């Protein structure tokens, strides 16, 4: 594995440039030394990286269509998507597998990977720390707690008319409320006097994760058999529950969250200089923080409501693409979304073929891959703590 450098803040602008809105990437003008400038000049063009990632995503989609317990040749898989019922048992079975099982699962995998990748990239830029992740700071746990609370206690606490009116939106709304509440609590604990204490943020995230885990454990203890099976789905994480009606509900909050995060990339790029410098550049720092937090909560809440706890995608994808495209969030965020989708699709393909015809929960597989990656990141940052 190649080196994993931290997000380097770009060079501070001159006093005259602080008075106007940044018109180009602050990362692009990072010329603090010949080594860093040389590394930037050796980076491939962004359009080439995006094209390569789009090609890899197309290949991952094709592999996900063909692979699994029921294997289908690439030509047959593509043909099954575009033909109607033929009366032939084999061809109709392949068509049903494509449209009713694998294609919804692939769409959910793309949403999960893109959403977590974009949220992770935005949080890492906001906190100026490559260790920030929706799972580490408790956002995913809060979303899972909100969804678990509705599953077990929704019939008791919510009025019947309200539950009926929310329908399929009830779980995403509960997960969003849980994610937003945890985000606001963690931010309130770690921020004060105009600054954000990253150690406090991570420690608060650890505490929130522990509290959320305990609360979900208590709900599991109180749940009946049907609720227990559903809660197991949340704790292990899986794309197996993908269905078209559910996708039609969650695609909107996820897409809205990603678009909202992308709209803040210019401000996040300025924030890499520091909050005071971003203020001088005309960035409304507190408003940007609120928008990013709400967009992350919206995106992660909807994803956790549909797929359960799938961790580390938001940590791995932004960090790897940052090694290729540099620290500019305008390049990192879309590249992380594409790479996160690729990682999720490939991990899901491994999860449903490794122990076929059974299926390994996706959350377990991403944890097995992501936890060692996180430990490597910590090991390489020991020098910053004088070790």
Characterization of this structure:
The chain contains 16 helices and two strands. The chain has helices at residues 34-41, 46-66, 74-82, 89-127, 139-157, 160-166, 170-190, 198-222, 225-236, 244-263, 265-271, 275-280, 285-307, 313-325, 329-353, 362-380; strands spanning 191-192, 195-196. It has a two-stranded antiparallel sheet with strand order 1-2. Strand 1 (191-192) and strand 2 (195-196) form a beta hairpin. Helix 2 (46-66) packs parallel to helix 15, helix 4 runs parallel beside helix 10 (244-263) and helix 14 packs across helix 15. The longest helix is centred in the N-terminal third of the chain and has 39 residues, at 89-127. It is globular and about 70 Å long. The model is unreliable at 1-6 and 9-34 (pLDDT under 50).
Distance between the termini: 21 Å
- What strand order characterises the main sheet? 1-2
Number of helices: 16
Number of strands: 2
Q: What topology does this entry show?
A:
Layout: H1 34-41, H2 46-66, H3 74-82, H4 89-127, H5 139-157, H6 160-166, H7 170-190, E1 191-192, E2 195-196, H8 198-222, H9 225-236, H10 244-263, H11 265-271, H12 275-280, H13 285-307, H14 313-325, H15 329-353, H16 362-380
Antiparallel strand pairs: 1-2
Give me a quick take on this structure.
This protein has 387 residues and is mainly α. It is 71% helix and 1% strand. The protein has helices at 34-41, 46-66, 74-82, 89-127, 139-157, 160-166, 170-190, 198-222, 225-236, 244-263, 265-271, 275-280, 285-307, 313-325, 329-353, 362-380, and strands at 191-192, 195-196.
